[in-house]
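Reviewer 2 asked us to include a model.

Predict the structure of this chain.
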Amino acid sequence: MKNNIVQLEKFQKKTPYDSLKEIFNEDLNKVEEFTKLKLSSEVDLIGKMASYQLGSGGKRLRSILTLASSNINEYNGEHNIHLAACVELIHSATLLHDDVIDNSLVRRGKKTSNVIWGNQTSILVGDYFLSRCFEIMVDVGSLEILKLLSNISAEIAQGEVLQLQHKKEVDITEQVYLNIITQKTASLFGAAMKVGGCLANKSENEKKALQSYGVNLGIVFQISDDILDYNSTKTFGKDIGNDFYEGKITLPIIILFQKSNENEREEIKKYFINDTRTEKQLGNILSLIKKHDVINVCKKRAEYFSNVSSDSLNIFKNSDIKKNLQDLSFYLINRTN
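Predicted model (structure tokens):
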């Protein structure tokens, strides 16, 4: 395997994400306007929550992937705008539901919707987002895309249940963890990429390659997100130690448990069995993570999926967008926000 852990210095001037965002800036504005139109409602509270949720930041990475895939597949039309909005709305709906399930207080540096308006309203507005998604899919008129995104919505829900099933289990295997993040996160990345191939009527092999890129990119994205919780002094949109305080079992904790001695394992188990965790306990976990070089091990895991993701696009002709997509899979390993 080639050494593809990319140094951040390479991307200091302009990251692959920045380049893609710049290329599709006009289309992203169209996606935003279309999303606002689809979420309009006579119920004032829905409008307020939709504006708050969509205005709370976020990378719009799934929208960018949909647009980029449509571009490298030479699709000409407007449905890519509609489906980019659809994919982003599915993501927003899952965030509303996630924050209720996890009792989250803050997301992207702001109070979560459930803190402001309550759990019941957040769940219902998340359902409203999903209902609008299905309306968009029907309007696009592709049975293949309708089936794809419907299946992904079900897969995300299954990932949530699987995660709850293994709550507080610090001794879960990496494979179980990968199953969870593939269903919860990476599956939507894969769908965002495959949509472009579906719109352009590409071959099954090409659509599978697009989906492979997206799924593996999503795995890298989630691993890097999990790393950030234990390996950064400042991030935008993610509180340091947030996963730890919520009791989430992520890759750094799984690797740490594997590498720890018996006494350390008992200590880790004790932290996660409890309903709450303290700042002192987080400090102890951070010390153990440093002692056992956990962050580098996690990055090595991510490197494998970066290679698979990048290589998946080799069947497509070279272009600036393809290069940025391939660079993105390596950049994400060391992202800082």
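Residues 1-11 have pLDDT under 50 and may be disordered. Residues 21 and 64 are 7 Å apart (CA to CA). We have added this to the supplementary material.
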